[in-house]
Pyruvate carboxylase
Amino acid sequence: MPKKFKRVLVANRGEIAIRVFRACQELGIRTVAIYSNEDKCSLFRTKADEAYLIGKNKDPIEAYLSIDEIIDLAVKKGVDAIHPGYGFLSENPEFARKCEEAGIEFIGPTHEMMEKLGDKIKSKIVAKKVGVPTIPGVEKPITSEEEAIEFARHCGYPVMLKAAAGGGGRGMRIVKSENDLIKEFRSAKSEAKKAFGIDDIFIEKYLEKPKHIEVQILGDKYGNIVHLFERDCSIQRRHQKIIEYTPAISLTEEKRQAICNDAIKIAKAVDYRGAGTVEFLVDAQGNHYFIEMNPRIQVEHTITEMVTGIDIVQSQILVAEGYSLNSPQIGIKSQDSIETRGYSIQCRITTEDPSLNFAPDTGKIDIYRTGSGFGIRLDGGNGFTGSIISPYYDSLLVKTISWSRTFDDAIRKAIRAIKEHTIMGVKTNADFLINILNHEQFKKGECDTRFIADNPDLFD
Ligand code: ADP
């Protein structure tokens, strides 16, 4: 029997906290925010029914990583479930386990599932077991330069060194020669330790100009798993996504089905539940390779919602309450009942200065006016006239999402909406986004993950 949640705490901040509060409010659930000292004046905390300061004596990031303090607060306030958002504790099996031990539902997969997918090495092994292609690479963390050299000699340069626990485009190095490999190995290891607390690194073949295609997965507690089709997230800067769209117009229908079916195979291998994303790279010859599975909601879930009409965040909550995918509450009768309609594009407007190599800009926003109109959705964080952009957190200001019947129309709408934004007082990447959207290669859906690096004219 499903158990309705009365109160949900969001262990996160900014736009994703607001996104989850909205989903809860629509489901009739009371919302609880947590905020750090630095977020005392942030918008998101005012969007919840209740808000509590955490990590009083901790630094701005550590505050949101205070597992015991957050769970104690949740117990004290009679919270039924915790939504972790993305980043912070969202992929931390210890947090999921401790929630469970405290009798609080973690809105996401179980800690056992997280452990199985664990890091990038473990999840590649899961993929291999079920016959999904992976990028040639080692199957264990590498412990010495010799191991790295041996692999690279065997598979040929360039290769990529990756932190097993890496995320957000960090902890990756492209290595073009043996000399560089020797140099990079140690520093990659110590950097991984510093950034992720774990110094496991591995090595794999570097694909020269792949596309990043990922598949949205949704599973319930009864073994039902569906995919909500794919997203093209190839527009990246330093391995970080900037613009995402769906459907991926460069894929043939056959390829699209093959990738989605492989995503399902991986999710089924771990009995996945909740929302998750299976990521692939597709090389210039059209071969696809699994790279990792993210066991959480992603920044770009919005575009899938726009074309499928399925509210992924509400579905996560309903699954955690115990509803099956085909219940009237979630309403997904079967895989075949899921269809996509039209095209959707998400542009991440960030408070970064493209003329200063995208250095984060901070300070007071003097004027904040956003675009709107038919086919435009905005998922915002802390943007309003008079708000302060602090240096402590990521620089995502507002996600501008367009939807239309054709890809061309969706592009035109996105450009129109971004041009309607007036944001003064802090620099943004708005013009840079428009340059990408206007590019012929983008319009044809041809961009690969090297597109921004290969086109310096986009910065003009
Ligand atoms: P993160 O978890 O930090 O997001 P991913 O493993 O998902 O890291 O990779 C992020 C991006 O890095 C990919 O979308 C792609 O652009 C690039 N990348 C990762 N692995 C490879 C590879 N083997 N060859 C070429 N590019 C890669």
About this structure: The pocket of adenosine-5'-diphosphate is lined by residues 120, 135, 160, 166-170, 172, 204, 206-207, 210, 212, 236, 239, 279, 281, 291-292, 449 (CB under 6 Å). The two ends are 58 Å apart (CA to CA). The chain has a mean pLDDT of 96.
